[in-house]
Design a protein that fits this description.
Elements: H1 8-15, H2 31-39, H3 60-71, H4 81-85, E1 87-94, E2 101-108, E3 116-120, H5 129-140, E4 144-148, H6 165-170, H7 174-194, E5 201-206, H8 208-220, E6 225-231, E7 248-253, H9 261-271, E8 276-280, H10 294-316, H11 319-322, E9 330-331, H12 333-350
Parallel strand pairs: 3-4, 3-5, 5-6, 6-7, 7-8, 8-9
Antiparallel strand pairs: 1-2, 2-4
Subcellular location: Cytoplasm, Cytosol
Protein name: Carboxymethylenebutenolidase homolog
GO molecular function: hydrolase activity
Length: 351
């Protein structure tokens, strides 16, 4: 099959969302699997000038930041603006019967590195614009990102009284959430194996999802996931840390009342495995994917770069060599950005 010889019926199944056409969620086999196989080799013909942009348009500063993320580091070739626009998305239906869950898959068309990442959302769910924006940016950097619905179509919404939050959280039964995450993880493992890509996956979580990262990795024991990232995880169980067999990066702020720095350090120590804690001074909960000020925008960009470098190190097998740049003491914004730039420079020299 020539690089640009992509069957239209295969292409349509992954592009319905970006073309704004009506569709039914794909089941976990068939067309979605065919698409995964083709996406790694597909390139638009040189004469094609159509671009399909799934990127959210929340602010002009974020559009600039997205280009920075894509160009800070040379992975294989320089990534240009066009590559950032070629991210495809499709809604999926995973599992069977009453165990079926919804999910959204973002796939990089250009510079796809073949790595799958499971992204666990905060309480606002998989359809939230901030979560999808983050998933889009991650896909822009070459990853295939699956965002499952953890709340059975009933995420928390900002218009609800805060007094009802604990009652809503109590309805999210841990066993049901764990089963839904396992369904998503199994789908990723099966599909990426069937497509001939990597068998090891990455897992990332924010807030509620960040706390679930610890639980998932403690059960997985390195069978499916090879690396994890937890952004200001909530309701974490430190006793599970010793069961985790893969490196985990923890990112949070020292002004976050929902994620204790001391707890993170204890978890990091118990995990070992080259895990790291990065704390942003003065930052509260949610700053990395829900920045509310220009200062938080800057730190959010730097947190993304640190996370991206962490994932890239693991993909290249270099995490042991370079992980010393991640320290578990308080860093201000300039320190973090300086370290991430140094890491990129070291890697460029090594490649």
């Amino acid at each position: 099959m020539a690089p640009h010889d992509f069957h239209r019926e295969d292409f349509n199944c992954i592009m319905r969302e970006s073309l704004k056409l009506p569709y039914k969620p794909l089941k976990a086999t068939g067309c979605a699997r065919v698409c995964l196989k083709h996406l790694l080799s597909f390139r638009f013909p040189p004469t094609c000038d159509r671009k399909y942009n799934l990127g959210p348009q929340r602010s002009s500063t974020e559009n600039v930041a997205r280009q920075v993320f894509c160009n800070l580091l040379k992975v294989e070739d320089d990534i240009n603006d066009e590559a950032c626009e070629l991210v495809n998305g499709v809604e999926l239906s995973l599992g069977e019967g009453v165990d079926t869950i919804s999910a959204y898959l973002f796939t990089a068309v250009k510079n796809n590195n073949g790595t799958g990442v499971l992204l666990l959302s905060d309480i606002f769910g998989f359809e939230d614009s901030s979560t999808r924006d983050f998933a889009y940016r991650l896909a822009c950097n070459g990853y295939n990102v699956l965002v499952p619905d953890l709340f059975c179509g009933d995420p928390w919404t900002k218009d609800r009284p805060k007094a009802m939050l604990e009652q809503w959280i109590a309805k999210q039964e841990p066993q049901r959430v764990a089963k839904d995450i396992a369904t998503a993880a199994k789908w990723m493992a099966d599909e990426f194996l069937a497509a001939g890509i990597s068998k090891k996956l990455g897992i990332i979580g924010f807030c509620f999802g960040g706390g679930r990262v610890i639980e998932v990795l403690s059960r997985d024991q390195g069978a499916c996931f090879g690396i994890g990232v937890s952004f200001y995880g909530t309701r974490m169980d430190p006793s599970l840390a010793s069961e985790i067999k893969v490196p985990v990066l923890f990112i949070s702020g020292n002004s976050d009342p929902l994620c204790s720095v001391n707890v993170l350090k204890d978890i990091e120590k118990d995990i070992g495995q080259r895990s790291r804690v990065v704390i942003f001074q003065g930052r509260g909960h949610g700053f990395a994917h829900r920045p509310n000020s220009p200062e938080e925008d800057k730190d959010a960009e730097q947190a993304f770069v640190i996370m991206r470098n962490w994932l890239y190190d693991d993909k290249e097998g270099d995490i042991l060599r370079y992980s010393s740049v991640f320290h578990h003491f308080l860093l201000d914004a300039s320190d973090v950005f300086s370290e991430s730039e140094s890491l990129a420079g070291c890697r460029s020299a090594a490649l």
